[in-house]
Amino acid sequence: MINRLRVLRAERAWSQQDLAERLDVSRQSVNAIETGRYDPSLPLAFRIADLFGLTIEEIFTNPNRKD
Amino acid sequence: MINRLRVLRAERAWSQQDLAERLDVSRQSVNAIETGRYDPSLPLAFRIADLFGLTIEEIFTNPNRKD
DNA sequence: CCCATATGGAAAGCTTGGTTGACATTCCGC
DNA sequence: GCGGAATGTCAACCAAGCTTTCCATATGGG
What we know:
The structure is a homodimer of 67-residue chains. Chain A is mainly α. Helix content of chain A is 57%, strand content 6%. A two-stranded antiparallel ribbon of chain A has the order 1-2. The interface between A and B is medium-sized, with 18 and 18 residues. Chain B binds a DNA duplex (30 and 30 nucleotides) through residues 15-17, 25-29, 31-35, 37-41, 44. Chains A, B: This is Putative transcriptional regulator.
């Protein structure tokens, strides 16, 4: 599972802390997701998509998919 | 988080067991997701969407969203 | 040189997702 | 009425998401 979180955050010039507060999670969670240490839960993925006004598919991509 | 899994499964006349095998999870997991006892992980949500040829947003809806 | 801000990451602990195995119920065909 | 298939649920367990606390490094301004 790879994601464009870091790019989207950079486009808005938000710190990991800023993003964490908007998503109502800890800064470490944002960091862990950005650095690929783990995947967000589905509810959190929806919050992320909502925040950026994108679909989950536009932010996260499943490497196992045969696109 | 509510989902249309049961409907999609019924449209194809698959048992929970059939669906579980296609998703490579246990039947109890399919049942728990259908009955809303918990939400799938993001990777599993992607597998479900791929299997039905839909987007995650077309299958799962976040009740907290202001649509 | 200090200090504040931003980032990466580890440890321990709680919560949630997922498994296996078991049991009960409903429904349908024989 | 009986047997088998489908579903709901529970208990016990392991794995993954997430939190808090802590430490390290980098960088930019004064």
